[in-house]
Design brief:
By secondary structure, this protein is mainly alpha-helical. Helix content is 78%, strand content 0%. 46% of the residues are buried.
């Protein structure tokens, strides 16, 4: 990661362009796809460091694009506290030199998320359960984020089960991803794994990510988002399988 190369720069740009397209079509998936693809060519901790700036920019945009920031924050603040605590506590694993287990963990997280989203029935969380469920889900999400760089498990299924309207759902996901990004950056920095060169390369990834989002929004008008999402999840399962088994073969 410390050696600059045009090949690496091009690979990172293409990765975030593709991840941005997925986010533009489906409303999510940028950090998940970026972590999965980058995890095939570099240690997960390096991939997570590159993810920070484009993830923050695109998710802060998503967070403040809707009208319900204050009500959503009041409803989910316990979950956000859990994400912060869990991510800061779990980031030591991602920042460690144990690439074998962090790569396998990244693959497992991709498989679990994609398979659950593809196959499971939609859950419904009673309002009375949110008081204890939100901090628990937040803490678990934070531990997964800190250990693998993947923000979505189990935060996305949980938020989808709260019965929010479409705009509020998108804004709530933006809140969760934004907090996860900030917590991940803080966790990596506290473990000495977030370097200056990572920030520079991460900042360069913002432009292709935003371009990809714009292209994805155009593409959304021409294709079925549900069909696109289904094949994206199948791809994530295959990518996760490759990451899961790679450290143990060859």
């Amino acid at each position: 990661m410390s050696d600059f190369s045009w090949a690496l720069t091009g690979t990172v740009a293409i990765t975030f362009l593709l991840a941005g397209i997925v986010k533009g079509v489906t409303g999510m998936g940028l950090p998940t796809l970026a972590m999965g693809l980058l995890g095939t060519i570099m240690p997960p901790v390096a991939a997570a460091s590159l993810l920070v700036v484009p993830s923050f920019v695109t998710n802060i945009w998503q967070l403040f694009a809707g009208p319900s920031f204050a009500p959503i924050l009041r409803r989910l603040w316990l979950m956000m506290i859990g994400i912060l605590i869990g991510t800061l506590g779990g980031a030591w694993l991602l920042a460690s030199d144990n690439v074998k287990w962090t790569t396998a963990g990244l693959g497992a997280a991709l498989i679990v998320y994609a398979a659950y989203t593809l196959l499971a029935r939609q859950l419904s969380i009673p309002a009375a359960a949110e008081r204890w469920a939100s901090p628990f889900v937040g803490l678990l999400t934070g531990l997964v984020t800190g250990g693998t760089g993947v923000f979505v498990v189990p935060a996305v299924p949980y938020i989808q089960a709260l019965g929010l309207g479409r705009e509020d759902l998108i804004q709530a996901l933006g809140l969760s991803f934004t907090v996860s990004t900030i917590a991940l950056a803080a966790g990596l920095a506290s473990n000495g794994a977030f370097q200056i060169e990572h920030i520079a390369m991460s900042a360069l990834a913002v432009a292709p990510a935003l371009l990809g989002m714009w292209l994805g929004q155009l593409l959304r008008q021409r294709i079925s988002p549900e069909t696109f999402r289904r094949w994206f999840l199948v791809f994530l399962i295959l990518l996760g399988l490759e990451l899961l088994v790679r450290p143990f073969v060859g």
